[in-house]
Specification:
seven-stranded antiparallel beta sheet; six-stranded mixed beta sheet; 10 helices; alpha+beta
Length: 360
């Protein structure tokens, strides 16, 4: 679990820190202050050893599959991750974990020919493939260097763009904990949801999902995984004589299924949720927060979510007042081109809500 998180030179952030993080963390702020960017930075940090996760970042933004013409001069997919598109300043993502150890992830953009001598050995380039042939062609060639440091452990990996396309110099080590990113811009994968449900079912934990989904659809009796063609799709049984695809039961139940499956499959890990209120009527938000919190505690999962909704903030605050207050609201602001973070304790948030102050 993260206790603190610090970002340097990532996208629009020159330097940003969030400290004293809780199990449930809600992030708010005006448009374009970097709420989604914060989640992206966390996602990359959770990946630890894997530089190819930069492709996922494009996907989260709704860009979809991207293709690069190797005969053209183009920007690499990681160019926009660097502060003000600078090739010369490294990204540093630093997390303090619940064991009080710091885990530091650094990205560097290598684009000069003198940077590549070590990379050629890692790629096991054949003797007749000179560095000039590989790195001095008529299209852009760059390397993304990732260095991960935790305690006495330090490892590097490289994502290379050369005449053969994109490739890693080594297979990434599996991260020490699971992490999921839920984006409102990326279409929901019903196949992935069915597979995640299957994992719960194998471990006899799928029944809890039915109980959770009843807050939106009280008629729901059971869930089943059914193959439609060659694709598994989650189906629900309500008060008719057949199973129905979850997608037909409404946006709210699809969204809650999407969230809860990842919380339950991220045991001892992290779930990142962009615009968490999306798909829910404001009246059920208190119950949504209740099941998110209870499931997160059950599986020891840490939640980071963004919102623009005052109803969502109020519902979360009021719910956590009735139980253990493992919740914190953070507001990101940009003042005089500088990032600032305001953290709200339960007392401060309560006073702000009662006074009608703008906290979104």
């Amino acid at each position: 679990m993260y206790r603190d998180f610090e970002i340097k030179k990532f996208r629009g952030f020159n330097h940003l820190e969030m400290n004293d993080l809780e199990r449930i963390n809600l992030i708010t702020g005006f448009n374009n202050v970097g709420k989604t960017t914060f989640l992206e930075a966390l996602f990359l940090h959770c990946g630890q050893h894997n530089p190819s996760l930069v492709f996922n970042i494009y996907n989260f933004r709704g860009v979809g599959e991207m293709k690069w013409d190797l005969g053209q001069k183009i920007e690499t997919p990681w160019a926009s991750l660097f502060y003000e598109f600078s090739k010369d300043e490294a990204i540093e993502l630093k997390g303090k974990m619940d064991n009080n150890q710091y885990a530091v992830l650094t990205f560097k953009n290598l684009y000069k020919q003198e940077d590549f001598s070590n990379i050629l050995n890692l790629l096991k380039i054949k003797p007749d493939e000179s560095s000039e042939e590989l790195f001095n062609t008529n299209f852009l060639n760059e390397v993304l260097e990732l260095e991960y440091t935790e305690g006495n452990q330090k490892e590097k990996n490289y994502l290379v763009f050369d005449s053969k396309g994109f490739r890693l110099t080594a297979r990434p080590v599996n991260p020490s904990f699971p992490a999921y990113f839920l984006s409102v811009r990326k279409p929901i994968s019903f196949k992935e949801d069915a597979e995640l449900y299957g994992r719960l079912d194998v471990n006899q934990k799928a029944g809890m999902l039915v109980d959770v989904l009843k807050i939106i659809e009280p008629r729901l009796e059971s869930l089943s995984m059914v193959f439609v063609g060659k694709q598994p799709v989650l189906h629900g049984k309500i008060d008719i004589d057949r199973l129905m695809p979850i997608s037909i039961l409404g946006e709210g139940i699809v969204r809650l299924t999407n969230i809860m499956l990842r919380i339950a499959n991220a045991e001892n890990g992290v779930v990142l949720i962009d615009e968490i209120e999306s798909g829910f009527h404001y009246s059920i938000l208190p119950r949504v927060w209740k099941v998110i919190n209870e499931t997160a505690k059950l599986f020891n999962t840490q939640i980071f979510a963004t919102t623009h909704s005052l109803e969502c903030i109020t519902a979360a605050h009021n719910y956590f007042l009735s139980t253990r207050y493992e919740f914190k609201l953070f507001r990101i602001d940009r003042l005089n081109n500088k990032e600032e973070v305001k953290a709200y304790s339960s007392e401060v948030l309560n006073a702000a809500l009662e006074a009608g102050l703008e906290i979104r």
